[in-house]
Amino acid sequence: MAAYLPPIKKRGFIMKIKIENGIIYVNSDYNKAFISGARMIQGKWCSPYWTFPEENREEVRDLLLETYGEADILDDNEMQRVTVEIDLDVYKDTIGESNELRLDNILVASRMSRDSYVKLADNVMLVTGGFESSGGSRQHPCVNPQKGTVLKVKNIPLRLYEKIKEMDGVRLVSEIDKDALVKEKEKLLARLEEIENLLST
User: Fold this and answer.
1) Is residue 9 part of a domain?
2) For residues 199 and 189, what is the distance between their CA atoms, to the nearest angstrom?
3) 127-145 pLDDT per residue, tens
């Protein structure tokens, strides 16, 4: 198959979150890891939303960050984020022949059918290389990157980077903001002090 760079379409990421009457409502793109995690934290499917008790706000936020990299209104704007590059010559060996490319549970790129274009998530850009015009079979499409393909993934939560930093082909390309980490640490310590005070009463 001749290698060339076909158009790459951005994936229309959907996430809507609202909080009403003590309930968190989450409407997001399909993600097996999110669904599995939702069931573990009292999540209930009420089309078109997953619903959670508001007191589980932190657990819902953490699940969204781990599976989508975003948590909308539940996210802490001061949370440290980094940018990484993925060398698919190396990294693809860890994902096999799949129609999806993920960083941990976060979707980075996908091909819906054998002859469709590869779609990149909104926070992903192509650095070098590209993807074949088709990949896999009708029943089992695959992303099928060309040799030398590198992707840049922006705004990755630092907690996710800590999980994937040892994976082959993943490289940090933005400096970690130590000042932001200090602020986050101070907030966590303050919260721990509050909890200790509550427990001692």
Assistant:
1) no
2) 15
3) 999 999 988 888 889 988 9
